[in-house]
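#help-structures

NK: newbie question. if I give both the sequence and a SMILES, will the prediction place the ligand too? trying with zinc ion
OV: yes, paste both and it writes out the complex. here, I ran yours:
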Amino acid sequence: MNIRREVLAAIRAHAEREHPRECCGILLAAGDEIVEAVAAENIAADPLRRYEVSPADHLSQIRRCRSESGGSRIVGVYHSHPHSSAVPSVTDLEQAWTEYVYVIAGPSDGSAEFAVRAFGFDGSAFQEIALATTPAGGE
Ligand SMILES: [Zn+2]
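OV: that's the protein plus ligand as structure tokens.
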């Protein structure tokens, strides 16, 4: 799957802005390219350890995609790990469903090299999806 350079930068900026809380947001794609990361409110009761995308933010993006003909679609969600690397946690496994791509970014505390990785859920386990960076839109 492809992801625009500016989307990677936006996810990283959001992760750093929300640190030490987990950030989260919605991923929009056109074809097999992730073209936008829309920041969402993390409404989890414990945002230091969990994330839950605000249903209102989710719904507004569903509406937006439906209203823009030939535009983008929601392909998944992203979130950050403040203190651990960009691999799915047990909690992530419990929340996963097969329709979405899960992009994880971390760690945002600088304890290891920051990375952004994508995973798909096959019903029992996560499988990594290779991400290829593409130039910013319009280039
Ligand atoms: Zn996680």
